[in-house]
Amino acid sequence: MMPIPRARAALLAATALVAPAIAQAQADETDTRLLTDPFLQAPADGSVNVVWFTEFEGTDHVVIAEGREIAAETMKMSRLAEDAGSHVGTQAGDGSLFESYTPRDVWRHEAVVDGLATGERVPYFVRSTDEGGDVVESREFSLQPLPGEGQPLRILLTSDHQLKPMTPANMQMVTETVGELDAVFFSGDLQNVPDRASEWFDDARGFAYFPGLQGRASFDLERTREEDGVTTTTTATYRGGEIIQHAPLFPVIGNHEVMGRFNPANPIGSQFNDPRPRAVAEALYEANAELYNPEGDPQIREAWIRDNSFNTITYEEIFTMPGTGPAGDQYYAMRFGDVFLIGLYGTRIWRSPSMDPGTTGKFREADANLNTPDNWGWGEFIFEDMAEGSEQYEWLQGVLESEEFRSAPVKVALMHDPSHGLGDNSIPVFAHPVQILDRDDDGRLTGVRYEYPLEEDIFVNDIEPLLGEAGVDLVHTGHSHLWYRMVSPQGVNIMETSNVGNTYGCYLEGYAERGGAPDDPRFDATNYPVTGDPHGYEAVMPTEFSPMSYEDGAPLPCVSSNELSTFTILETGADGATVSSYVFDTARPGEPAKLFDRFTLD
Prior knowledge:
Layout: H1 6-14, E1 39-44, E2 47-54, E3 59-65, E4 68-71, E5 73-76, E6 81-82, E7 87-88, E8 91-92, E9 102-103, E10 107-113, E11 122-129, E12 135-137, E13 141-143, E14 153-158, H2 167-178, E15 183-186, H3 197-201, H4 209-214, E16 219-227, E17 230-238, E18 249-251, H5 268-272, H6 278-287, H7 289-292, H8 298-307, H9 313-318, E19 332-336, E20 339-343, H10 391-401, H11 403-406, E21 410-414, E22 434-439, E23 445-451, H12 458-470, E24 474-477, E25 483-487, E26 493-497, E27 564-573, E28 576-585, E29 594-601
Parallel strand pairs: 14-15, 15-18, 20-21, 21-24, 24-26
Antiparallel strand pairs: 1-2, 2-10, 3-4, 3-11, 5-10, 6-9, 7-8, 11-12, 11-13, 14-27, 16-17, 19-20, 22-23, 25-26, 27-28, 28-29
């Protein structure tokens, strides 16, 4: 058995005190003074964690379940803030409330509810007491511990919510179509800027992250359609779906979960867009160690390097993951009923493909920064290496050799960045940037460029063979905001089902071409295919019907729309595992979602 993570073991001990039996009570509606409803994390044998957030430190934070009060452990979030770009309260991104970077006080509460029976749901709610002594309660929801072998499961596969306009509608249609879920597997890009508190909790536009997954959103979606010469405009208000109050959430890190260099003098969005490789920060630190850290304190060293490269502090503070990897919660693996889940840290910074002289982008450094490497972006560098020989690769090897993995009937891996796919972000491939220094005849630096050789794709060369040989059934990716699926030569299903809130296009010959390839003859164009999968995989046609078509009416193997939205459900049971995808038209509110693709995991 994989050991209980140290952080979870400590929390279990801290919340083990249980009050005598009390009368069960509940509120009709969650008190708005709770920043979120409770949600579920880290299910284990006989237990599950309950997490919620408030804007007050308060006292007596408890979960009430089965007539018991289970005390929560409280911590203050360390990096959440707002600034002029926030949409919060009466401020609409105009700086009327927050002129500049302003820390926001948010507290996180977490309790371990143990003593649970496998396969049995238990009602629960949470209660907090604010500084004035007022008691604040949530509504009643349900929880259960880690599912047992053979227990039927219904799991949502999703990604890339990112405060996009169709996301609340998508989550609402999930609950209306399939009902109660047992888990959510989330392949990254939960919101846009991870240190901006309102994007998680209460963005004034009505589509923040937690409200969408808890049925507490409020987003008016206006759509216009023409049919038989008649123009119809509809406006529907969507509240999202009540999902994670009942089903544990398993996210992985996408590029929108990673903050760049920390500098409160800069706007939050500017910090987000300003990461640099850890190796660059380490080299700068070592060159100036006596200045930055004269006592040689290792904690000061680590904090300086982190704040001058990139970090996932807010993501890791918000979520409690299985913590089975050497990097804590950044990547993990666990058995969940009949499903073995592998959460990979496979993402990189997104940068503009523009070749404009002023761009710090995918393919170049800005001309103005050539002589100041401290301002370089270093291309679309990978945040956590997974190439052969890396820590993550060696950890994955061990996971795939474990009995827990081998004995699981269904094997699923999550990773944000797609090495395969039909979207815009399928190029450049998942390779380390190769830096090219251009010089004139006198040796002066005239340009810094980055190539991403197709044959150096880390996922295709190193990770995909491991997963295929081990018998992984499904790799679920995100990042490009569309739906498609493929099957590798080794029989691994590769799927992106991220046409949730919007799309960035589907690129197939005869349909559309990617615009993200470098428009410069100095680059090798074969590294940047403008249509299809970069590695030549063919997309599978949907089994029931294709929601979209070419101009001539021929069916497309993808869904890429700002009016159609898709969601996907993984189901396990006595008859095996199936993956079912549904589509609905936001221009036709009230119409049900339709099944358009279904396949089995053999």
